[in-house]
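Quick sanity check, Benzoate 1,2-dioxygenase subunit beta:
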Amino acid sequence: MSALSMEEIRAFVYREARLADDRDWDAWLACYAPSVEFWMPAWDDDDQLTEDPQSEMSLIYYPNREGLEDRVFRIKTERSGASTPEPRTSHTISNIERLADTEDSVAIRFNWFTLNQRYDQTAMFFGCSFYTLDTSGESPLISRKKVVLKNDHIHQVIDVYHI
């Protein structure tokens, strides 16, 4: 695949968010490379993000797509108390920036917020995400996803569809 235009990058990011909102979990998983690292670091006591998912606290960490596949399996089969009933979400994406390009990848950053409806309550999550997109195949795949959640307090379990 040739280098992605900004319009193609935007379309890919919007599609991934829409697939999560539509609960189209198989198509959502297809956006991720098998070796994807999916990481949401935590904020430490000094208001700094943790830097190493292997030795410091993370809110979410999957070293490859198998972790995401297991998470989706639990959501789809109602084996996740945190996801039963499945919440309704609406993702809004903004400020998509191209950070760097290599021959086979592009690094991007964007802001997001997600509204989440469950048990007659609406919650809002917000932050920014850093993706590395593998562009070596027919279509881009997320090979690294780092999500920075900026909420100070969350009153429920945070999950992959919230971010």
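Posting the structure with no commentary besides this: The CA atoms of residues 20 and 161 lie 6 Å apart.
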